[in-house]
Design goal:
This is Tetratricopeptide TPR_2 repeat protein. This protein is mainly α. The chain has 26 helices and no strands. Helix 13 runs parallel beside helix 15, helix 20 runs antiparallel to helix 21 and helix 22 runs antiparallel to helix 23. The chain is rod-shaped.
């Protein structure tokens, strides 16, 4: 078998081509290796700052930070300057969210240093930007915080704007508890600024929002109902006010069940307790509320009501000097804060005037009632009460003419605005009768006493109603005797007889016997004298009517 022939030898040309290809390959590898090493070195050089450059950069950054911190802590004005130019001064913070948080932190720092007014432009811009981004849950509490800072400075109008912003955010996020608190604070400001209709609307919204609080709803609703009761009383809607307080007390009868703002809850429930006649519990709650509201200027309106409530309790317990002390304390707290035309002043001076009436301090009472009348143009109920009080003060001073002038104005106000309040109407008629009698106008006195009797007979039973009715009947009877109208006088004495006891009943029989004597009705006269306990005594003329200073139920 023939062996295969070996491969033919390479030609010289082929050998040179192979050698050339090897050389090109080696050169290509050398080039690629060099280029790769160059790029790696370049990249490392780009990423690694030379020590000298690092040192100079650090020095510059420290200088900028030092200047920034110096401006922050130098003064309120320098801090405000940073906020006004924050786009430039905070440009070194690359992260927009971090830059915004830093700006808010500086705003909060400025507010904490008492520069709330200087911080307002930045605060408003930041809050509006946060709301525009839909971050209500974050920025609503911050708007609330700005409002509280403004309230501490008694900047009520500006605070109200931020509270409205907070209220919008709380409502959008369904944050019921802060929403209720904000609505009630706004309502308190509205009351301070004499915007009672708006205040009532906000309270009703707060009541509706409180329904979403779950287990905490009842005590909070109770507090809100008490606030509605107070507002109704302030605007003269007394029966409606009592219904609100009654509902408030039914929802939260125990003081220790109150939740939320403890001071506000205590004061509100104190008012409900007072309306229910539970004075000791009311006093305790008022004092508790006042002690917890020392640093809460937004509760000023509630604190003033608490002080007036304490004064009312002291007055009803006969502690007139203590009542005056509370009222002067309320005056001092409101001075320079509430506007001069605020309804609080009329109510305060009216209440103080009645305390002075009970102290037998007629000059001081007249001064207070005149102040109340000057401030009561927007409050018919205070105007009526103060006119009545001024008439009573002149009556106590023996000035029948001046007393009658003011009591006639009080009566007209009562008839025009509060005709359904028959007890108060009867009381004014009775005082007008005394004033007319003192001024020598017997016919006017008889008309007034008749009006008092007619009004009081339509009232529900009560201690004050009974006392006034007895005195009105007796004064009417004595005035009729003065005019020798014996038949009508006897009818008045007969009508009041079932309401009298003891010596007063015996005296009434004497006067009745005298009337029947004058009428020639001997048998009836003898029976009356016998009932009086003095069957053989004949009085020359009926005794004068009693001088009565019935205690008023002024609030």
């Amino acid at each position: 078998m023939q062996a295969s022939s070996p491969l033919p030898p390479l030609s010289p040309r082929t050998k040179w081509l192979i050698a050339l290809c090897l050389c090109v390959l080696v050169m290509l590898l050398e080039f690629l290796t060099y280029h790769m090493a160059y790029r790696i070195g370049y990249d490392e050089g780009m990423l690694t700052t030379p020590p000298v450059v690092v040192q100079k950069s650090d020095e510059k950054a420290m200088q900028n930070l030092s200047r920034f911190m110096a401006d922050v802590f130098a003064s309120r004005e320098s801090l405000a300057g940073i906020l006004d130019n924050r786009e430039e001064r905070l440009a070194w913070i690359r992260d927009p969210e971090l830059r915004t948080e830093t700006a808010w932190g500086l705003t909060r720092e400025l507010i904490s240093r008492g520069g709330v007014v200087l911080a307002l432009p930045a605060a408003r811009e930041l809050i509006d930007a946060g709301y525009a981004a839909g971050h209500y849950r974050v920025w609503a509490p911050r708007a609330d915080a700005v409002a509280k800072a403004l309230l501490a400075e008694h900047q009520y109008t500006s605070a109200y704007d931020y509270l409205k912003t907070a209220e919008e955010g709380y409502e959008k996020e369904g944050m019921a508890e802060p929403l209720v608190r904000t609505l009630q604070t706004m309502s308190s400001i509205d009351q301070m600024l004499n915007r009672n209709e708006q205040a009532n609307m906000l309270l009703q919204r707060a009541v509706d929002a409180a329904a979403h609080l779950g287990p905490d709803a009842l005590p909070v609703r109770s507090r809100l109902l008490a606030a509605q009761g107070r507002l109704a009383r302030t605007t003269g809607r007394i029966p409606e006010s009592r219904e609100y307080f009654k509902k408030a007390l039914a929802l939260c009868p125990q003081p220790d069940k109150t939740t939320g703002d403890l001071a506000l809850a205590s004061i509100s429930m104190g008012e409900a307790m007072l309306e229910a006649g539970r004075k000791d519990e009311a006093r305790e709650l008022f004092l508790k509320g006042l002690s917890g509201s020392e640093n809460a200027s937004y509760l000023l309106n509630d604190c003033l009501n608490a002080l007036r409530g304490l004064a009312r309790i002291s007055t009803e317990q006969g502690n007139y000097e203590e009542a005056l002390a509370y009222l002067y304390q309320a005056e001092g707290a409101a001075r320079g804060v509430l506007p001069a035309d605020h309804a609080f002043w009329a109510g305060l001076y009216d209440q103080r005037g009645w305390v002075n009436i009970l102290r037998k301090a007629s000059p001081e009472a007249r001064a207070d009632f005149l102040k109340a009348i000057a401030n009561s143009s927007a409050s018919p109920v205070i105007s009526a009460q103060s006119r009545e009080g001024l008439g009573k003060a002149w009556l106590d001073a023996g000035e029948g003419g001046k007393a009658r002038e003011n009591l006639e104005k009080a009566l007209q106000l009562r008839k025009s605005h509060f005709a359904s309040d028959l007890l108060s109407l009867g009381r004014v008629y009775y005082s007008l009768g005394l004033a007319s009698d003192m001024a020598g106008d017997r016919e006017g006195a008889l008309i007034a006493y008749a009006g008092a009797v007619d009004s009081l007979l339509k009232c529900v039973e009560g201690a004050e109603r009974r006392d006034l009715l007895v005195q009105s009947y007796l004064c009417k009877a004595y005035a009729l005797c003065d005019g020798e109208q014996w038949k009508e006088a006897a009818e008045a004495f007969e009508a009041v007889l079932p309401m009298l006891e003891g010596e007063q009943r015996s005296e009434n029989y004497k006067q009745l016997g005298r009337c029947y004597d004058e009428l020639g009705m001997k048998e009836k006269a003898d029976d009356c004298w016998k009932e009086s306990g003095f069957p053989r005594v004949r009085m020359a003329s009926p005794g004068r009517r009693p001088s009565v200073n019935s205690r008023s139920s002024r609030r």
